[in-house]
Amino acid sequence: MPQPRALHHKQPSPLRAMLALAVGAVALGGCATQSQVAGLQTTTRALEERNVALQQELKAKETMVSQLQDRVASSEQTIRQLRSRNGELNADLLNLREEYRRLTEQLANVGAAPLDPLTDQALRDFAARNPNLVQYDPARGMLRLSSDLTFSLGSADLSESARESIRKLATLLNNPQAQRYDIRIVGHTDNVPISASRNRFPTNMHLSAARAISVHQALKQEGVDPRRMEIAGWGPYRPVAPNPPKGGAKANRRVEIYLVPRPTGIADVPLNSQEPAEATSRPSPTDPIK
Question: 287 — alpha (psi -120 to 50), left (phi > 0) or beta?
Fold first, then answer.
């Protein structure tokens, strides 16, 4: 036979138990009234309703806390991922900086190499005869012209003494031994902004390129093949000495002439006999200054 089911009685809530105790106490006291019992019952219901509301509010708060904890955990994971990515980007940046430094050095020394003994000695002798105007770097096959002696300040017009030196240099560069080299002419300035000659040279970059062009033109006029020559201007961006707070460093105002081996496998373009003559740059008695 099936076993009889055990009877389950709903446990009274604590508030109801308290109410029962209170009613019992009043009844035992012999002075319980219907209105008192009703009042206690009303209070109990109100407290129970308040208890339910508080429990619901607690549950909502617990849900909110759980959601916030999930968000915090997600944010912490995102932070870890971002920190890891930041580390990777910093490593990439360091690698790029090193690559940039290496490429910059390579660019600065493209083709720079010791010259053949005859040309090297000829340039050494040339520099020795013009010690105030020219410095020679045999390791790089480079002549450095002081801009302060080659040009007036703020000007790209060659001085007469510089023209005479360039005339002698052109003879050297036209020697058969030296004709195996191309000629790279690079202008540099200090960091002092252009002032009085701004209408001619808006920036130091313009001035450095114009000075390189002036040397190029002077060499061309002295018979150096223009197909061998290249010009560039770095402005103030390749200093060889720190610029003081005022005035700029004299060493940074310069034109460098590099002799670099001519590339093979490149055909020379025929010179155009109808090419317009380039204007000869002459010193002006009223050259503006920077």
Answer: beta
pTM of the model: 0.59
Helix axes 14-29, 34-108, angle to 10 degrees: 160
Torsion of CA 175, 224, 148, 277, to 10 degrees: 160
- Please measure the distance between the N-terminal and C-terminal CA atoms of the chain and give it in whole angstroms: 120
CA–CA distances in Å: residue 242 to residues 101, 144, 201:
19, 18, 23
DSSP 167: H
For the chain, give the longest Cα–Cα distance.
139
Q: What is the mean pLDDT of residues 198-227?
A: 96
Give the 3-state secondary structure of 79-133: HHHHHHHHHHHHHHHHHHHHHHHHHHHHHHCCCCCCCCHHHHHHHHHHHHHCCCC
The 10s digit of each residue's pLDDT in 257-288 is 999 998 877 767 787 654 555 544 444 433 33
Nearest to 165 by CA among 200, 132, 201: 132
